[in-house]
Amino acid sequence: MLQNLDLDTVTFAQIASTGDPISIEDMNEQEMIDLIIVNLARLCVAGEWDGLLSAGGGGGFSEVLPLLGSTDGDQYDISFAPPWNGTVVTSQNVSGLTKPHSFPFIAPATGTVSAIGIYVASASTGDDIYVGIYSQDTNFLPSTRLGYATISLGSTGSIYQTSLTGTVSLTAGQQYWFSVGLAQSSSATLRAGHDAYLPALGLTDTLDSKHFAIEDDSESTFQVPPATFTPNLLDGTQPRYGIGLKF
Questions:
Q1: Quick check: helix, strand or coil at residue 201?
Q2: pLDDT tens digits for range 144-155
Q3: Which is nearest to 184 in space by CA: 128, 130, 225?
């Protein structure tokens, strides 16, 4: 069934129809091996390595999350979505963000981010906060900056920035990191997940401590998000600030 197809055009649906449960009952061992080899070769050509974990054709955790469509939702709240969300939302001071702190999230959709938003509970006139989006390295740590937004803390409510520095293109199901850091000292408060109810990153120096963020302590205070994030300090004191993405 597959012998006359090219690897760059064969689809997972064709692979599945060849090896569906009824066919498998009649397949011998060599046919099964051949089918596995063809699908592996297809994944190599198509670059769909997620298929090795999720039955081909992309995938990931985001497949269980609702996508923008006929609902009235127009954005994703990446701070409070599984699996990194907390359960208690509060207002937290940003004074500790003198250097960038990063938090992991799973991209809920594939596309280019058009706006980044925060919710300011208590304003501080003339102050700004940086929100950066980072890819991760092979150790699953924040690495290369994709882009960032400079957002004013001068008024309360939902504040969105559509003018982004850099192009933030995300792939659904993949893990990325967002960073938050101040442009200057500020006493503003933001909507955030209470640190007492957040899942820890897992990295720890002792079993009685929990860490929710990774800080780039190599940077000077009040700097724009660095082009490359240096994950050199675990932090268990910062809450997980609410960040919204629009595509």
A1: coil
A2: 999 999 999 999
A3: 128
